[in-house]
Specification:
The chain is 38% helix and 19% strand. It is α/β, with parallel strands linked by helices. Among the domains are: 200-395 and 419-439, ANL, N-terminal domain (Rossmann fold), CATH 3.40.50.12780; 442-550, GMP Synthetase, Chain A, domain 3; 564-642, ACP-like (Non-ribosomal Peptide Synthetase Peptidyl Carrier Protein, Chain A), CATH 1.10.1200.10.
Length: 643
């Protein structure tokens, strides 16, 4: 048994023999002392904090909270994106004898204000933001700058925190967790590790978890943070959430674990397949063959398969997640089998998991081989839980780790029995469970058949779409496909997209084919959201926050001569060079005639990439010395890439 595994099991035994409070969890986490807790990059250097450093800062901020709010035992809102300051504030609120309400930044401000009022909150602590909620607001900066050199005398460590649901329903719901339920979730780790030790596999620098998932989401707070802080892991924080920065941070910091919602994995799959599709037939065939060989070898021998994947996909991995990845989990909503298959083939062990705010983290596929992970099951329930499938395939959950108390639309609701998740599931002969959709999303067709939109949505793979969702129409009698497209989608891209939609739709049984297709430029995900909620989507369409138009409505037309495509390219040249568009001639050289620098040139490429959602790659196919410095050159290049 490795030293890390021994340490984890010793700490699990300590927690098992304790009172299972949040204070007990905190004490075990902070016992890692000199291990690196937090790591984040600035423009010039890497900043690290040990567990001891963070503990000292928590004491200082907790003392400041006590000075401002001496009565204690009240809820204090915590508003902010992921950051070391957020984590310090969370524990400091508890240490001051108060209870954190971790504010879901996705929900409307009015909903947060109602919940703060329902909880009787004293104040809100804001991290790197200036929002006001109608009650006393104090910034982390104000709390951390108070001089607290005296000996601290803290009240009893609080044993509750509140967390909002993720917004997939329209009810106002907040869950109150105690240390008991969180301890039970953490203690599932023993059987999890015994089933698949890769979940705690480390590099020479230990376990490094990307702090990607929102800490105000149960997946982020429990699975990403509390589990792995208990293990003594290092958390790597992002400067921003631009896709390239996420991948660069993972590589540069040697991240070993990435837990994310399907949106990230689907984006990676789309980027890889787009890059491969740009190659000739020989290269595409070689890539597909390598994927099949990799999966076959991994199924035969994990170590042999991993070695092959590193060699066969060296270039791809160097642009994606690097070589330190040990374990990945997808959760929060449906993930495509093709994404799981591709990531595993490249050598990144990606598994599917399941949980809800009301029931915590419940299960994850722990298969050691890709053939098990590619099933896209959510695995088997953890030791602290039981699953039961009741009428209409609905999943009910019961156990010691479920949230016992919720406040729904202002009323306290207690759960001591089976909890109806609303998810439609199935189970195979090996005891693995599969999510097939949500009961609230079911469409009741005119012929009396119940249609699950998830089953239809799985059939669509649309490379020119930013996002899409299948849901019921206004009276919930037929399936409709909503597709978000770029404002700069070109005619040929649009026609290709429509052909893909038609092809995918025809692969479905007649009853499951979408009966209407609508396009939109608006995001299908709520502001700050991490997944598509059909409940939000229906309401946003109804309230005209998402504006739909017919898929046959004309877009930009590319023709010969002075066309719209050239206008967009000239406009981009002008923006990058800070010149008037009238000074940009179609045959003027970007550097020699217009005075652009090498840095300006790569900025131009990046802007055109984003503008047309294309991978402009000046490799062997496009030689810089012959092609690529004028508006006319870029016009031909972009036309070639979209054909």
């Amino acid at each position: 048994m490795s030293n890390l595994k021994k340490s984890i099991f010793r700490n699990a035994e300590k927690l098992q023999n304790s009172n299972k409070t949040l204070c007990d969890i905190y004490s075990i986490i902070m016992s890692h002392n000199d291990s690196v807790f937090l790591e984040c990059a600035t423009m010039t250097r890497k900043v690290t904090y040990t567990y001891a450093d963070v503990s000292d800062r928590i004491d200082s901020v907790a003392a400041s909270i006590l000075q401002r709010f001496p009565n204690g035992n009240a809820f204090i809102g915590l508003h902010g994106e992921n950051s070391p300051e957020w984590i310090i504030s969370f524990w400091a609120i508890l240490k001051s004898g108060n209870k954190p309400y971790v504010i879901n930044l996705r929900q409307p401000k009015s909903s947060t204000e109602e919940i703060l009022n329902t909880l009787g909150a004293n104040a809100v602590i804001t991290v790197n933001s200036n929002i006001e909620y109608g009650i006393q607001t104090v910034s982390y900066k104000d709390l951390s700058c108070i001089d607290n050199e005296n000996e601290y005398s803290f009240p009893e460590f609080s044993n509750e925190f509140a967390i909002s649901t993720s917004g997939t329903t329209l009810k106002q719901k907040v869950c109150i967790y105690s240390g008991q339920e969180i301890s039970e979730q953490i203690l599932n780790l023993e059987s999890i590790i015994d089933t698949n030790k890769r979940i705690v596999a480390a590099s020479k620098d230990g376990i490094k978890m990307l702090a990607f998932l929102p800490l105000y989401h149960v997946f982020g707070l429990v699975a990403m943070f509390l589990w792995y802080a208990f293990f003594g892991s290092t958390f790597v924080f992002l400067n921003d959430y631009a896709p390239e920065n996420i991948l660069r941070t993972i590589r540069n910091h040697g991240v070993t674990h990435v837990f994310a919602v399907p949106m990230l994995w689907h984006a990676i799959e789309k980027a890889v397949r787009k890059e491969i599709a740009a190659n000739d037939e020989k290269m595409r065939s070689k890539f597909e063959k390598a994927c099949k060989t990799s999966l076959k070898l991994q199924n035969f021998s994990c170590s042999m398969g991993a070695f092959f994947a590193k060699l066969a996909f060296k270039d791809v991995r160097s642009r994606l997640l690097g070589n330190e990845i040990r374990f990945c989990i997808s959760g929060g909503s449906y993930i495509k089998t093709s994404a799981v298959e591709l990531l595993n083939a490249i050598g990144y062990p990606l598994c599917n998991g399941y949980g809800m705010t009301e029931i915590g983290i419940c299960s994850v596929e722990l298969g050691k081989s890709p053939k098990e992970r590619i099933l896209c099951s959510i695995g088997k329930p953890f030791d602290s839980l039981e699953y039961n499938i009741e009428k209409e395939g609905r999943l009910f959950v019961k156990g010691s780790s479920l949230c016992r108390k919720c406040i729904i639309d202002g009323k306290e609701v207690y759960n001591n029995d089976w909890f109806d998740t609303g998810d439609i599931v199935s189970v195979d002969d090996d005891g693995r469970y599969y999510i097939n959709g949500r009961f609230s999303d079911v469409v009741f067709s005119d012929d009396g058949e119940n249609l699950n939109p998830d089953l239809a949505e799985k059939a669509f793979s649309l490379r020119d779409a930013i996002d899409f969702s299948v849901l019921g129409n206004e009276d919930n009698t037929k399936l409709v496909l909503i597709v978000r497209i770029s404002r700069n989608l070109l005619v040929k891209q649009k026609e290709r997209l429509k052909s893909e939609i038609e092809l995918c739709n025809s692969s479905l049984p007649a009853s499951y084919r979408v009966k209407d297709v609508k396009f939109t430029f608006d995001s299908l995900v709520e502001d700050g959201g991490i997944k598509v909620s059909r409940a939000y989507l229906r309401k946003a369409i109804r309230d005209k926050k998402i504006r739909l138009f017919d898929s046959n409505e004309p877009l930009v037309e590319i023709s010969n001569g002075d066309n719209e495509l050239k206008r967009i390219i000239r406009e981009t040249f002008a923006t990058v060079l800070d010149r008037s568009i009238d000074t940009i001639g179609d045959d003027m050289h970007f550097m020699n005639d217009l005075g652009g620098t090498s840095l300006d040139y790569f900025t131009l490429i990046n802007e055109l990439d984003k503008r047309f959602d294309l991978k402009i790659d000046f490799g062997s196919e496009y030689n810089l010395e012959q092609f690529g410095y004028t508006v006319n050159h870029f016009e031909k290049l972009i036309k070639d890439l979209i054909n």
